[in-house]
Every structure is written in C-alpha cells, then in structure tokens.
Amino acid sequence: MPPASLYRGAVAGASGMALLLATAGPGLAAIPAASTGAQSTIGKLGSRPGATRLPLPINDQVSGSVDVGTGNLMLSITGLSLPGINSEIPVGVVFNSQSTDTTNSAGPRWTLAAGAAGTLSSTSSGVLYTAGDGYSALFTPVSGSTTAFTPPAGVKADLLKTATGYTLTSRTSALVITFDSNGQTDLAEEGLDGPERTRTIRRTAAKTS
C-alpha cells in the first residue's frame, strides 16, 4: 500500500477535484490518446460487469477483492465523503494489481476515485471510458453516425458526442456523466428516483493524472 503521506496527498488531490464547483468553459483540445498500457487492459481492471469476485474484507475503510476471471486484485480505500446535492461523494484511492500505470500521482497502479468521475481517451477503434476504479470500456462508432457509439458487450450505457464534449448515460441507474472536450468529467447527475438522488461533481482546473 502507498505510504500515509502519499495517500493523504492522493485524497487531497481527489478532494480538490470534487470541491471545485465553478462551471468550466468548453475545452479546446481533443480527448487525449489512450496509452498502449491502458489499451492492453481494457475491460480487465476495476469492477467488471458480471465478474465473479472473491471478497477480501479488511476494515471499514479498506476493502479488497480478486476477480476470478482475470486474477486482478483490487483494493479500495475510502478517505472521506464530501457533501453533494442530497447525497455524499465518496473520495479515495483504488489499486489494481494488473494495471500498467506506474506514473499516476496516487502511486504505481493506484488511481484517484471521486464519485462517478471518470475520463475519456481515444483509440484507433473508438472512445475509451475509464472509471475511477480502473474499469475501462471501449465504445465504437455507430455506422453512419457521427455522434453515437456502441457499448461493448455487458456494458449498459450509451455514449454520445455533443457540441462541447460527450455524455455517458447509464441504462440502469439514470446516471448521466458529462465530459468536456478534453475527456474530463464536468458534471455527473443521477436522478432515477427524482431530484432527491441527484449528485453533482464539477471539475474545472483539477485533472486526474
């Protein structure tokens, strides 16, 4: 596990990401290209849909599990919860043993996680969505469309290109994540049962590295 000082820094970074509530202007750059390492672990990390996981309970703040299908060990540390709109935003760090990311500010194979915030990157085949827990899904363009994308098998969500970025809408929870043109989460809202379940995360200057 990362040293306490590194963990505190990671949580502080994620906290800053979730606390920046000013509205961001439209980004100027296209979404970044996915690294070779990120492309090699598509769909293999984090909470894979339909995966069988062996739980490894540790304590109230740290949980672990092993993905039976891939052998990936995932550790989640919840540092704190920040107030959202009528619900809290969990903030912490996640470790994936099979991650190839050794340059993240949270530490090798560790990523910052703040609520529903995620990132988009591009590949030669489409757009790659990466969640805070490391899970990634490749969305491929719909034939004949310049805005719609087809989700991979097992992923119940729709990706749509907009004038200012992208939106990712879950078919099961009504969670809608809005991304700016740099592939960063700008807004995340969930309202399946009405506005009392709405959660908002706005990001401006802070970016997940």
Q: How many helical stretches? A: 2
- Cα-to-Cα separation, first versus last residue: 19 Å
**Estimated helix fraction:** 10-25%
How many beta strands in the DSSP annotation?
A: 13
Mean pLDDT reading? 78
Q: In percent terms, what proportion of residues is strand?
A: 35-45%
Describe this structure in words.
- This protein has an 8-stranded antiparallel sheet, with no helix packed on it.
- Helix content is 10%, strand content 37%.
- It has 2 helices and 13 strands, in the order H-H-E-E-E-E-E-E-E-E-E-E-E-E-E.
- The chain has helices at residues 4-19, 36-40, and strands at residues 53-57, 62-67, 73-83, 88-96, 110-114, 118-122, 127-131, 136-141, 148-150, 157-161, 165-170, 175-180, 185-190.
- The two termini are 19 Å apart.
- The longest helix is centred in the first third of the chain and has 16 residues, at 4-19.
- The protein is mainly beta and 209 residues long.
Primary descriptors:
209 residues, mainly beta, 8-stranded antiparallel beta sheet, 5-stranded antiparallel beta sheet, 2 helices, disordered N terminus, disordered C terminus
In short:
This protein has helices at residues 4-19, 36-40, and strands at residues 53-57, 62-67, 73-83, 88-96, 110-114, 118-122, 127-131, 136-141, 148-150, 157-161, 165-170, 175-180, 185-190. By secondary structure, it is mostly beta strands.
